[in-house]
## 1
Amino acid sequence: MSPLSPLSPPSPSRPTYPRMPAEWAEHEACLMAWPTRPALWGPAFEAARSEYATVARAIADFEPVIMIAAADSVDEARAVFGDDPGIEVIELPIDDSWLRDSGPIFAYDEQGDRVGVDFRFNAWGEKHYPWTADDKLASLLLDRLGIPRAHSSMILEGGAVTVDGEGTLITTEQCLLHPNRNPRMSRAEIEDEIKRRLGVEKIIWLPYGGLEDTETDGHVDGVAAFVAPGTVVLSLPEDPAHPDHARMRANLAVLEASTDARGRALRVVAVPQTTHGEVEGHPVEVCYLNFYLANGGCVVPVGGTPEDEAALAVLAEALPGRKVVGVPAPVLAFGGGGIHCITQQLPKDLNA
C-alpha cells in the first residue's frame, strides 16, 4: 500500500494523485447497508427497509449494488433481492445502515490505485450506541474488496464533504468544527489531515448545514453538492419562513466569493424547492440535495408532493446527459438522512 501525501500543484490537462475522485467519475459499484437498528426507526422499521430496497433497485438500473447485511438479517436481505443480478448481498458486522458515513472514503494513490481511507467513526458525536462494529466496518469491507486501507485517527463522515475531483472540497463549519467530533484538533489541523488523506488542495468552509439537521450536526450533503468542475448545487429555500432561509443565503455569499483549486469562480445552481411530509406522526423534510450520482444517472429523494417535479427539473438542467430519477424517501428523512447518506460509491479501478 502506498502512503498518501499532499498533492502537487494541479495540471490543467490531467489529474494529479493522490486524490478523491468526484462522485460523477465512473463507479465500479454502489455500496449500501441493510437497516439493522430497529430502535432508530421504531414502527417505521419495515418501511425503512422497503425504501432502502427501492433505492437499491433504482441505482442497480445504472450500476451494480453491493448490499452489506448483518448476520441476523442477511438471509432476509437476500430474500428481498432474490436473484436480482444487479444487487449482491454480503455479510459483515454493522451497527447501523448509513454507509456514506461509516464506510471508507475512496481515493486514488500516487500510482492511480484505489485506496480506502478509513477515518474513525463515533456515530455522529456518540448519538447512537453501540457503534463499535460501524467503526470497524471500513477495515473489514476493504479487506473483503481487496482494496488497500489508509487509516486516519480523525473522525470524519463521508456526508460531511463534497469534492470536485480536481483538488477542491466543500464542508460546513457547523459539522466539522463541532466539539463532538475532533475537539483536540484545530481547524488548521483538520484541514491538513483532509488534504493529506483525500488529495485536496483547497477547502471551502460553508458556515451552515441544515438548522434542523441535529442528527449529523449539519452535513454538507444536506445543503450543497458539486455536480461538475466549478458547479455547485445549493439548497436555497424561497420561503422566508423556512428555518434555513437566511442561513443558506450566507452559504451562497461564501460560494459566490470563492474560487476552486484551479482558480475558477464557482457557478451556483439554486434549488429553491423544499418538501415536507409526515412519518409516524413526526414531521419530516425530504432533502432534494441528498441525491446519489450513479453511472449515467442521478437518484433523488422525493416526498410525493407537487414540489418534486420542479426540483427534479432544476437538477436535470444542472446534470445534462444524466437520467434524473426521483425515489420516495420520507422514511429516510425520518431516520435522519436521504439517499446520499445510505450510499457510497466505489470508484472504477483505473489500473485494472
## 2
Amino acid sequence: MKLLLIEDNPTMQATLQRTLERRGMQVLTCGDGDRALALWRSSLPDVVLLDLSLPGRDGLQVLGEARAEGLKTPVIILTARGTVGDRIIGLNTGADDYLPKPFDLDELEARVRALVRRSADSDGNGSLPARSAGWCGMQIDRDSGAVYHDGVPMELAPRELALLRAVLAQPGQAITKERLFELVFPGEDHVQPEAIEVVAYRLRKKIGHTGAQLVTLRGLGYLLKAAA
C-alpha cells in the first residue's frame, strides 16, 4: 500500500511516516502545497493524507485541483481545523474522510485500510476502468494512471509513464521542459534539468509502434503528435 503524506510540520511528518512504514505501508512525503499536486500525479498513491495548512497552495486548493484533473485517489484530511464548517468544506471539495488533530494512530491506520478496501470493492464489479479519450490507440486509466495501447497496458518505467501521461493529457500542444520536469522529477532538486531529455529519448523509442511521435520543439519543450 502506497500513501502520499502531504504535511508541512516536520515532526508530524516524520512521526507519521515512521509509524505507518512500521505497519507495512510505503509512505511518500511532501511539505509544500505547490509541489504536492505534481507528486500526486507521478506517484499514483493508494491514499492521500492531506493537511490543510500548507505553504504555497493550501490543502483545499490542492484537493480541488486534483479532483478537477480527474485524480480519484481516496483522500483523508488531517488538520487542526476541526469545526463542522471546515469538515463540510473539505468533504464537498472531494475528501473521502476527515480526521481532526490530534488523532489516534490506530484509528488513522484503520481509516486508511477501510478506504483502500472501499476503493477496491468499487472497482471489483467486472467492468473496465474509466479511461481517457484515446490518442493513437493510447488511453490513460483514470483510476490507476496506467497507459493502455489498444487495450494492453504499456510497459514503461515510472518516469517514462509520468512523461507520457503529461503529453497524452494535451496531445498536439507544446509543453515546456520546465513543466514536464516538475511532473517527471517532483521534488528532486538534485536532478539536472537536462535529465528530462533522457526520459524523452527512452519514451520516444517505446511509443514508436503506436503511431504517435514525441517531437522536440527547440527552445520550447515537447509535443505529442500523430506520425505523418
## 3
Amino acid sequence: MLRIKHTFRLPPDLSRALADYAARKRVSQALVVETALRSLLSGDSAEHLEAVLSRRLDRLSRQAEKLAWHVELGNETLALFVRFWLVNNPPLPDTALAAAQAMGKERWERFVATLNRRMELGPRLKNEISEDVDPAPGAS
C-alpha cells in the first residue's frame, strides 16, 4: 500500500502522551496516529464511542453482578456458620470461662493465620463453589 509522508508538530505534552501510549500498547506512534485519524475522519465516531461505552458498561455490569454474588456467598456462609455454632455450643459455666477464653484466643490466631494463607496462596472458597447452581424449585 502506498504511503505518503506527513510532517507535523505536536505540543510536548501530547508528544509524550503519544509516545507513552504507543510504548504501552507496543505499537508504533505512526500506527496510533493513523488509527486515531481514521476514527476521527470516519464520520461514525459517535457510533464508535457508543459501542465502546456499551461494551465497557456491559463488562462493568458483569463485574458488579459477580461481586454481588460473592458478597451474598460470604453473607450466607457467615449466617450458616453462626446458626450452626449457636445451635451446637451451649453457654459455658463461669468456672470454665477463663480457660475457654484462652483457648478461643489461640484458636482465633490460628484461624487468622490460615485465612491469611488462603487469601495469599489459595485455595479460595469461590473456586470450590459453583456460581452456576440452579436454585431449588420454588426458591427465589
## 4
Amino acid sequence: MFEARLVFQDGGVLDVAVNADETLAEAAQRLDLPTRQDCLSGECGACIARHTSGDIESDPTELLTQEERREGLALTCQTRLASNAAFELDYPLTPAPTAANRYDATVTAVDQLNGTTSRLRLLLSDADDLWFAPGQYVRLRPPGLRVARPYSISSTPADLPSIELLIRHVPGGAVSGWLEASAAPGQVVRLQAPLGGFARDDRSDRQIFIGGGTGLAPLLSMIQASDASTGRRLLCFGCSTPTDLFHIETLRALQAARTDLEVRIAVMSGEVDGIAKGTAVDLLRPEDLEAGCAVHLCGPPMMVTAAQSFLRQHDVPARAIRSERFSLRA
C-alpha cells in the first residue's frame, strides 16, 4: 500500500491510502472522499489530476495527448501508485459539490436557438440538497430512451432547482432525435448530477474563457456565477458558420451588465456584422496572456488543441490551462 497526497485548488490537502490492486480514483471512492470522477473507464476526463511527485503507472488513454502526459496530467481512474505520490486537483476541497445522485426533472421549455442548437430548461424535483460547481455537467436520459448523454450546465447554482442545458443536434443522435421529434414542456426526464471536475480557477485575477459551439455552456455558468466586482474576465466564443451562432444578444447583454467582462465573438466562415472572422482562438491576442492568467477551454477537440498550442507558444504554463473534453455524441 502507498499513500497519495491530494492538493486541491484552495490549498486543502487529503492523504489517501491506495491499495496495490486499485486505482487512485477507486481508492478515493472507497473512502468516500470529495474527489470528482464519473465513468471510471478513462473516457470522460472528470477525474483528471496533475501528477507532481512519486512513481505511478497509468494505462494508455486517447483522452490525453503525449504532451499533456509529459506535463503530468493523468486520469486517476487509470492510475496506480508505484510509490508514495502527490497530485494537484483543479478544484477546491471546500465547498464540495453534493455527491452525484439521480433526479427526476420536468421539461419547462425547449428553445431552438438555431438550426443545430437547442436550450433545454428543466425543473428538478426532490433536489433541495443538490449543489453543483459551475463547470460541472449532468447525464440526461429522456423519456423512452435507454441512453444517457452528458451535457454541461449553462445556468448557475443560484438558479436551482432549475437548470439549463445547451444541446447540439447531431444527425442520428438519440437525444437529438427526441429534441426534434417529441420533446415538450411537461415531460419528465431522468438526470444524474452533478458530475465532472472542470472548474474555474479562482486564484487568478485574470481569467480567460475560450469556447466553441455548445462548449459555451460551462463557461457561461462559470462567468455568471463569478463575482463581478472582482477579477478581469475575457470570453472568446466562436462558431463555424453564421447559422451556427447563438446567444449573441445574451452575451452582449452580459458584457454590458458586468464591468469585469469583455466578450469577443467570431465565425469561421461567412460574414456577420459586428462578428470577427476566424475561430475562437483567433480572437486571443498575446497581450491578453499576462503573467498569472488562468485559461479555461471547452469546445470541439480541434479547437482545444489549437488553443493549447497557441497558449504554449506564448509561454502560458501548463498548470494555468484547464480544459473540458467535448463530445458531439447526442
